Each structure stands twice: as structure tokens, then as C-alpha cells.
Amino acid sequence: MRRLSWFNVTSLTLGFAFLYLPMVILIIYSFNASKLVTVWAGFSTRWYGELIQNEAFLDAAWVTLKVAVISSTLATVLGTMAAYTLVRGGRFFGRTLFSGMIYAPLVMPEVITGLSLLLLFIGIGLDRGVLTIVLAHTTFSMCYVSVVVSSRLISFDRSLEEAALDLGASPFDAFRLVTLPIIAPAVISGWLLAFTLSLDDLVIASFTAGPSATTLPIKIFSAVRLGVSPEINALSTIMIAIVTVGVLTASLVSKRASLRQQQDAQAAERATG
Amino acid sequence: MSQNVFAPWDDPNAKPLIRFQNVTKRFGEFVAIDDLTLDIFEQEFFALLGPSGCGKTTMMRMLAGFENISAGRIELSGQDIGKVPPNKRAVNMMFQSYALFPHLSVWENIAFGLKRDRKSKEQIDARVAEMLKLTRLEKFAHRKPHQISGGQRQRVALARSLAKAPKLLLLDEPLGALDKKLRQDTQFELMDIQEQTGTTFVIVTHDQEEAMTVASRVAVMDEGRIIQVATPSAIYEYPNSVYVADFIGDVNIIEGKAKPAGEELFHLEWAEGRAPVKAASQQPFSEGQTAHLAIRPEKIRISTEKPEEAVNLFEGKVLDIAYLGNLSTYHVELPSGQVIKAQTANTRRLARRDITWEDPVWISWSATAGVMLDR
Question: Does residue A263 sit within a domain?
Fold first, then answer.
């Protein structure tokens, strides 16, 4: 290992402190025995126990999870379809317009997206609840999925699909048996992206959520307005833990897969010279 | 042997497997295939040869069904296949990039097409085993494409495209990614497999040696048109144009004015004040017509002493020597400034050969050594 210079060490420390210090403080205080958020009174897991008792939080967590799973799945299906058509459809009328419109929601302020969806739901008389949040989240996360998947599709060797057709597969079979398995990593990371976006969205959810269903971010935000409670710290720590484990697993799995592929390819080259 | 020569193209009653009838393909303004008519017969090993952009790949993709035809008609066994989608054609293709499915094993790659036909498990097992044996891949059946070498991948691609026993197999630059030695071995393998399976092969290549080696007939293409279709030896010895003569192998082109000099014999006036070149030609040329004499370097004799008898004899000076090991090509400059290439087989060891740079030499060739061409 190369030794780092003092400059590198300093900048690394500062950078990571900037990124993670707030979270570290939050995690430490989630184990605080005191009810006062800013006063340390010894280690305790009391707030985690109380959290489990808190029905309102658990309900909101359940709604959030449900919304995230359904909306990210829908967004993945729609976004993959959109990406496939835009990349593979050739030059059809209005293609440039469509591909521009797919990306527009990425730069659209969330407030505007939320407001316009609210107006739509009121206009068509849809009661606000889980369904409307799902629809709203699908709408805005679908374009993220489409961006991720289309970048993979562009580098995808088209002759693979042609080979499948040539061997007698119907266009749908060619997609199902060849294209989809190969672009699966992109589709999965698109799903994960949509899932995280839905999980931590506050703005759009607060426009489209109704009294019957509230998501966790809305719950936390409104609870904090009344004063930060140690329970919130505990809840946030759990969320950080879940996200960390998820990200680490995903990166480890993909790293191992690519490493193994590399070794196999090298072995094949060596074996045959 | 000569009684049974495979030459259905000379038989007026033979039914072609593939028939291109006035086929045109346009990409916008660009004409990729220009009013092309061609017959390919069953069990042929047919090569489409031409520089990149000549339309050979487009022709192949039209046969596979990946490109529509702008005008004309393509028939397979007498049936119009213009509207048949690629997955419904009894045609399989081996892709230039091989297009092996990276997520499937060698076995699954080969079985892919058979599974689409809803064949029984036993039938699939038997057919895949047969294909693995044919391509000597039994040991690699359960490897993934990235776990085998380039040459093995090429064989998997071939096995996969042959597995469904297509009427017609298309090969798009099948050996392009292999190094020279492996390519030569594989050429013979391809010919063996073609003979064993009796499948009609159409191969696209820009490598003229490859086309000459494997094919029963070669079509030389340029700018969307077929310039000449003939057997490899006919293409080489009797090219129909300067383009074909020049594209296939090495050639000297001597341009001049023709002058009839007896039965099927012509004099070619090619340089002011010099003896004309005498050449035989079955194709008639009128007095004063511009003609090109195409003559292969190996048909020109080179010597340091003046030969006793020669129909065409010229004196020159060695300008350059290209030593290829088995052959040497001498670039001989004539007093007129024209450079003629003469090739000899190096039957003696290097030290004993006597021609070197700047040497005055004599070059000579017979009246039938070259072909007279009007274009």
C-alpha cells in the first residue's frame, strides 16, 4: 500500500467528516437514554423499544414500503419499455420529442410535479391515498429507470437480438430470453434507484398523500416540527442501517461477478494461447 | 471425377435455391443494392466478395430477413420470402461478432433454436450432442462463451447456426476475428462441415484468398452490383473486367489500342515506337479499340539472359524485389517507364539466386498468358 501524503489525509478526513458527521451524531443520539435530544445521559436502547410500540410510525413505515415496492416495480416496467422503444424503435415520427419528454421530469422541480399531480387527482375525482402516492411516484421515478436502462441498451450488441430472431424466437421471446437477462443488472439498479427515490420522497408525497395514508418521511417531517424526539433518531438509524446493508450487498455482489468473469476470460485465453 | 463435377449453374434445368430478381435496396438516397439478379443453387458454397460498402452484407441481411427489399423479389425454393419475418425463415446466420448469448452455456446456445421449435428433450439432447461432436466442442458444453477462446467461440457460433439444419446458412465474415493460421485451418474445417451437412452456404468476405479457398462460386461485387459470378479459377484466370482482375490477386494491366492480327490474335499498341504486345483473345476487338491486357505476375518469365524464343519480350531494369519466402516478386521498369511485376517461385536457396536490384533483365510471356479486357 502506498502511504498517503498529509494533504490527501486532510482532504479525505474533511470530506468524509462533511458527509458523515451529521449521520454519526444522529446514530449516537439514538442510543441516548435521555428524553432531551441534546443532552447525553448514557447508553440505552429504550427508544428502539418505544418505536416498536408506536403504531402511527409503523403504519407509515408499512405504507412507505408498500408504495416504494409497487411504484418502483411499475416504474421499472414502464421505464424499461420506454427505453427499449426509444433506443430500438429506429427513427419514428416524434422520436426526438419523446426522448426529450422522457428526460424533462428529471429537471422539473418536484413542487411543480407534485402540484400538477394533485390538480389532476382532484380533477378526476380520485381520493388521495396509497393509490395516488403510487401513481405519483411511478410517474417521477419512471424517467430515472428509463435513463439507466437506455444507457445499457445503447451499448448492447444488437446482433444478439437478431441472432435470437434468426434462430426462430418471436420478438417477444427474443426480448424475454436474450435482451432482458443481459440488461438485467441495469433493470435491477433502475428498480433500486426508483425504490430509494420513492422511499425518501417528501415533496411529491405530501401533495398526493391523503388523511388515509401517510408515508414515513411525511410522518417524520411533521413530528420534527413539533420537536425532535429520540424515537425519530432511532427510526432514522434503522433506515441508515437498511440502506447501508443494501448498498454494500449490491456492490459486493456485482464486484464479485465481474471479478469472476475476468478470471474466467483470462483462464480461457491462457488455456488456448 | 470430371464426369461428376458439381456445377448446377451450368445446367439450364437446375432449380436455384435462392433467386434474386431485380432486387434493389435503398437507404434513403443511397442505393446499396442496384437491380441485382442472381441464382444460388442447393449445396453451393457461395462467396460474396467485395470491398467494404459494396453491398455484400446488405444482401446477406436481406436473405436473413433483417432488411426489407425496396424493389424486386427474393425467392427461397421458389417461394417469395420478402414478407417472411426472420424467425419464420429456414435460414440461419452466423454473425460476424458471433453474437453468442453471454448468459447461456455453450450447450444452451446451441439448443436455443431447437427449443424455439418445441422439439422434445430427447431430440434436443441428441441434436446438440451431434453438433458438439461435429465442431469438436464436447469438452466445453457447460462453459459460458467468455470461458472459451476465440476459435472455440467461432465453432459454437457455427454449431448454433447449423443446429436447426437450415436450408441455407449465411456466414458474415465468419473468420474475420481469427489470426491467419487459425483462419486457414478453419477454412478447411468449414469446407468439410459444408460437405458433411450438405447445407448451402453463403459467405460474405472481403478476403479474396478466403473466398477462393472455400467457395464453389464467387460473386465479385462493387457499389451494389455484381461484376462477375464464376468459379474461383474462372474469376482468377478469366476476369471479365479490369476491376475484377485487379481485385482478385496481383495483376499487370497494359493499356493500348487493339489491332486484329489473325484468328483470335491481336496486337496491342501500348507505347510509341515499341513492339506491340501480342495477345490471344476470343472476345473480338476492332481496330483501334482501347483494350487492357491483364496479366498475372506469375505468368511472366524473368531472366538475366535473353530467351531464344518468346512471343512477347522486353528488356528492363529491376526496381524492387518483394521477397515472400516461397515467392519473389520483381518490379521491372521498362524504358517507357511502365513497371511490370514478374513473380517466380523460389525453388533455390537465397544465396544462389542471381537477380538483384538495378540488374538489366529480360521479361517475356506467351500470347495466351493474359486476358484482353475492354473495360
Answer: yes
CA distance A126 to A5: 61
Q: Which domain holds residue A54?
A: 46-272
Query: Which residues of B fall within a CB distance of 8 Å from A266?
Result: none
Rg of the Cα atoms in chain A? 23
ipTM: 0.83
Joined grid coordinates for residue A168 = 426462430
Strands B225-230 and B252-260: unpaired
Kind and range of the H or E run holding B184 = helix B180-197
- How far is the C-alpha of A125 from the C-alpha of A121, rounded, in Å? 6
**A178 touching chain B per CB within 8 A:** yes
Residues of B in contact with A165 (CB under 8 A): 65-66, 85-87
User: Does CATH number 3.60.15.10 belong to domain B250-373?
Assistant: no
Residue type, A6: W
Domain B8-245 - what CATH class?
alpha beta
Domain count, chain A: 1
From B61's Cα to the closest Cα of chain A, the distance in A is 10
Q: With beta carbons less than 8 A apart as the criterion, state whether B198 and B191 touch.
A: no
Report the predicted TM-score, pTM, of the whole model to 2 decimal places: 0.81
Closest CA to B297 of B273, B269, B321, B268: B321
Q: What is the pLDDT of residues A93-150, one digit of tens each?
A: 778 888 888 888 888 898 999 999 999 999 998 888 899 999 999 998 998 999 989 9
Query: How many Å lie between the alpha carbon of B120 and the closest alpha carbon of chain A?
Result: 16
Q: Say which CATH number the domain at A228 has.
A: 1.10.3720.10
Question: In this complex, is the C-beta atom of B164 within 8 Å of any C-beta atom belonging to chain A?
Answer: yes
Structure-block grid coordinates of residue A250: 449490491
Q: Which residue has the cell 416504494?
A: A68
A165 touches chain B (CB under 8 A): yes
**Cα–Cα nearest to B314, from B360, B251, B362:** B362
Residue A77 in any domain: the answer is yes
In contact, B341 and B324? CB cutoff 8 Å = no
Are the beta carbons of A156 and A179 closer than 8 angstroms? Answer: yes
The alpha carbon of residue B25 and the mean position of all alpha carbons in its chain are separated, in whole angstroms, by 23
Residue with cell 422541480: A109
Q: Mean pLDDT, to the nearest integer, of A39-60? A: 86
The torsion angle over the Cα atoms of residues B171, A161, A172 and B132, rounded to 10 degrees, is: 60
Q: Does A171 contact chain B (CB < 8 Å)?
A: yes
Cα(B323)–Cα(B293) distance, integer angstroms:
26
Domain extents for chain B? 8-245, 250-373
